[in-house]
């Protein structure tokens, strides 16, 4: 099994469906004997450039340990899901379990308030 980092950008009008999508992909990963090391919902964020005339997207980050066959299946799921604007899958050397810099910034902002 290999380690992967997956970032998904979801259409902002479908942000209410994010928990359902997360559960769907968690079930797929668990069904194929995968391990989720980190799952973060970054929320709506500003895009660097517009995609389909959109200025924002809802971001999700997932670090998993699964087989290449399962990653191919997930890629197909992402490609044919109309509410997913973009996805990026990167093979990494080790499991990443600590918080991402974006989540650390969110936590710091919450502590200041």
UniProtKB/TrEMBL annotation:
InterPro entries documented for this protein: Ribosomal_bS6, Ribosomal_bS6_CS, Ribosomal_bS6_sf, Ribosomal_S6_plastid/chlpt, Transl_elong_EF1B/ribsomal_bS6
Superkingdom: Bacteria
One Pfam family it belongs to: Ribosomal_S6
Any GO BP: translation
Nucleotidyltransferase is among the record's keywords: no
Keywords: Ribonucleoprotein, Ribosomal protein, RNA-binding, rRNA-binding
Single annotated GO MF: small ribosomal subunit rRNA binding
Matching Gene3D superfamilies: 3.30.70.60
Keyword rRNA-binding: yes
Cellular-component GO terms for this entry: cytosolic small ribosomal subunit
Function of the protein: Binds together with bS18 to 16S ribosomal RNA.
Family named by the database record: Belongs to the bacterial ribosomal protein bS6 family.
NCBIfam families for the chain: S6
Protein name: Small ribosomal subunit protein bS6
Organism: Buchnera aphidicola (Lipaphis pseudobrassicae)
Lineage, top ranks: Bacteria, Pseudomonadati, Pseudomonadota, Gammaproteobacteria, Enterobacterales
Originating gene: rpsF
